[in-house]
Design a protein that fits this description.
Layout (H helix, E strand, L loop, with lengths): L1 E10 L9 E7 L33 E3 L2 H9 L10 E5 L9 H9 L3 E6 L11 E4 L11 E9 L13 E9 L15 H11 L4 E2 L3 H4 L4
Length: 216
Amino acid sequence: MYSIKEAFYSLQGEGAHAGRPALFCRFTGCNLWSGSEKTRATSECQFCDTDFIGTNGQHGGKFKTAGQLRTHLDALWPVGQGHKYVVFTGGEPALQLDNAIISEMKLYGYTIAIETNGTIALPDGIDWICVSPKTNKPLVVNKGDELKLVYPQSHLSPELFEALDFTNFYLQPMDQSHLTAEQIPLLDTQQATLHYCLSHPQWRLSLQTHKMLNID
């Protein structure tokens, strides 16, 4: 059984594939936060801006088989169009993404991407691996195509990841719009991130362009 919070077709707004048309599948659940505001302050990840609880989002639901999920997702791609690209996200997608889903999506011509916190081993066959660290525990997924670090995090310095085997390194300013001053000291995260990238050119700036453009 697969539990999906939401699924939608839009443009990738972040990182190396920003601007690329993509099908997004957001799984419910995460291993670093329950999703409840009551537990945010004591969770391993305290700044998540995503709703991943339940299955009541756009095109969300429960699916018994990988085939049923693939049929549901494939119906959202423009009819007759190729260059199929699906991004599995969450929450933490590695809790549910498995070989059966990967095989189904590959069979129907999809390039498969994942956005993961890197703390759970991944199945084979994923074409683009984006790891976004949220905890100071050692990463289980320590190589891939893109490391995207939300910045700044008091417990995670970019220097901790610079020697890892990733093709692209991105810093993304922390979105503080949903936080209070009690939860995190508010600061100009965009300027802080810009300054760090200029001082450490291994890192590139990633902006959430989908929020700037007011698209899903």
